[in-house]
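Cont'd.
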Amino acid sequence: MSTPTDAPAPALPAPSLARSLALQRRVLHALLMREVITRFGRRNLGALWLFVEPMLFTLGVAALWAAAGLHERSPVPVAAFAITGYSSVLLWRNCATRSAMAIEANQGLLYHRNVRVIDVLLTRILLEVGGATASFVLLGLFFTWFGWIAPPEDLLEVAAGWFLLAWFGAALALVIGAGTAFSDVVEKLWHPAAYLLFPISGAAFLVDWLPPNLREVVMLLPMVHGVEILREGYFGSVARLHYDAGFLAVSCLVLTYVGLAMTRHAGRKVEVR
Amino acid sequence: MIALDSVSKVYHTRHGPRPVLDRVSFRLDRGRNIGILGRNGAGKSTLIRLISGAEEPTSGRISRGMRVSWPLAFGGAFQVNLTGLDNLKFVCRIYGVDWRERVAFVEEFTELGVYFREPVSHYSHGMLTRLAFALSMAIEFDCFLIDEAMVVGDVRFHERCHQELFHKRRDRAFILVTHEAHVIKLYCERAAVLHDGHLVEFPTVDEAYDFYLESLQLAPPPPPEL
């Protein structure tokens, strides 16, 4: 029987930023490959659900809307409204939900010293942001091709809104994911919270439709601003959108800081079976 | 070199904090080895987890100046929906090794046949242990962490593990923890006993052996029949 090599490994290289970055890249690549095969498999059409689910939802909303005759009363294009709404919910909700289970599901990996809690969370975030983005772009192209929606009026603004929503989702995922290392209650509470946030997150309405006093309350939620930016990019000429990009960015920054601090602490606290 | 400097670990339970390790210090140089004896629950696995870096100590410092393995034959990191080959690829990617060069060795050692390309969830316990051990051998380390309780199998498997670890890699360092005193006598040049959270070192393996048996309140067993 042959061994891979007979010589002991050479001396350890000195730590440096370049080496740490290479290591980080290597670990994230390994984790991503593992997660992609696990989730989407090889034989079934797992990846297809990434598109089918939001597509069914969008078609359903459009059908309800048409049945209620709303499309005659509002100039807002219903399919574009549904796509921007549901896709943005998917983006931040799935990031946080998948991260909520990440540490528990992957704790065995922590035996590989280079795999840290942050890597496990980043892997899930990258995969969710990637999946939601692919589904949003492909659905948009698909619906445009069929003539159900007009192409975005301002592609750059759509991209900016999407980027800010993704940032919000990633920061939220760090907080929720790291939080589960401190208490299981975090995961238990996140699920009802996600349900409650869905109707008030801006996915199902335009801020402009609300009475002014309600507007102020709803706009305390950072993701509402993101959806409004996204929609202004899509159909800003036929609707009045309300947002404060600065407020959203500052919220994301604060949430990111809190999330990273919690992740660092979670790494010290985590107990492996 | 590995050095533990006053390492303590406290777990928080419902009945308050439980100290498992209390100011444990020792040093291991390249190419050397140490056996650590301890009863069930003495903190052996905790010590291995801390040295491997899976968990952080509550206080104290652990420095690693050589490549330290994950606990030998640890299979808890397997993703059961992935095949044996996928798990090999994963481990190789983590450690920056080309998996193609390792496939032949792992296939040969594990004797998994077609199962090497089947999901791990279909494996028997023996197959899992063989795969876990082979993956540990597929990556080169300067120091192996061996929790004796993890490496269980039939005589043939033990024979082959022994060959890989103590013959082909006899130039490497290792830390072996076990509750079986004779194992330490067989393999280790130095020994210590983990007792009430403290690590007690002895000048000779025999003294450690005697102390451990005394702490178990047992007389030394009669010499094995040959």
